[in-house]
Design a protein that fits this description.
Largest sheet: 3 strands, parallel
Shape: globular
Structural class: mainly alpha
CATH architecture of the largest domain: 3-Layer(aba) Sandwich
Number of helices: 8
Length: about 190
């Protein structure tokens, strides 16, 4: 039985503010994505960065194209994962598409079967690709940073983005405003 109280009881603000308050107490944050796919990333990395907690990130293999890898621990750089034809096949054929995200509208039996097969494919891909991972090198890196206050500070001082430039497409908010502004509506 879990007796741990929700962080919502201890912090004020919206859900993201409460999460950052919680993370800010810790020097490091495990920021592992639920799925590893090139270009797929969620808030896990930057929530930790905003809380001044060094992320231990495991996910997007292309993350170094956007984020400065000197500002976080990229677990993929310290682990050996399986990369072969089977992984590529599973990754390609189990990738979700528009119909998978809209089960209310695409609810015929064949859509349900396809979604289930893709889910099994994604789970199999993750199991095969990351079976028997050795996290020892990552743990050693965390200990090294934790035991060296100057090295820890160096990580926190690093700019988050490559060349300290926020990617132009990092937020779609302006694009949505542009699309749905009254001037964009054609009468």
């Amino acid at each position: 039985m879990n007796n741990m109280k929700s962080i919502d009881l201890f912090y004020d603000g919206n859900i993201w503010e409460r999460k950052r308050h919680f993370l800010s107490k810790y020097k490091f944050t495990i920021a592992f994505e639920n799925y590893v796919y090139p270009g797929y990333q969620t808030e896990k990395l930057y929530d930790a960065m905003q809380a001044q907690s060094i992320p231990i990130y495991f996910g997007d293999s292309l993350i170094n194209e956007i984020f400065n890898s000197n500002s976080f621990i990229n677990a993929l750089e310290y682990t050996k994962t399986r990369k072969d034809g089977l992984i590529s096949f599973l990754q390609h054929f189990s990738q979700q598409d528009f119909k998978d995200y809209r089960p209310t509208f695409y609810n015929q039996l064949h859509h349900k079967i396809i979604r289930r097969i893709k889910k099994i494919g994604r789970e199999l891909k993750m199991s095969v690709q990351f079976n028997k991972l050795d996290f020892s090198p990552i743990i050693d890196k965390i200990i090294e940073i934790d035991n060296d206050p100057e090295l820890y500070a160096q990580y926190l001082r690093q700019p988050w983005f490559v060349d300290n430039i926020t990617p132009e497409n990092s937020s779609l908010k302006n694009r949505w405003i542009e699309i749905f502004s009254p001037s964009a509506i054609i009468e």
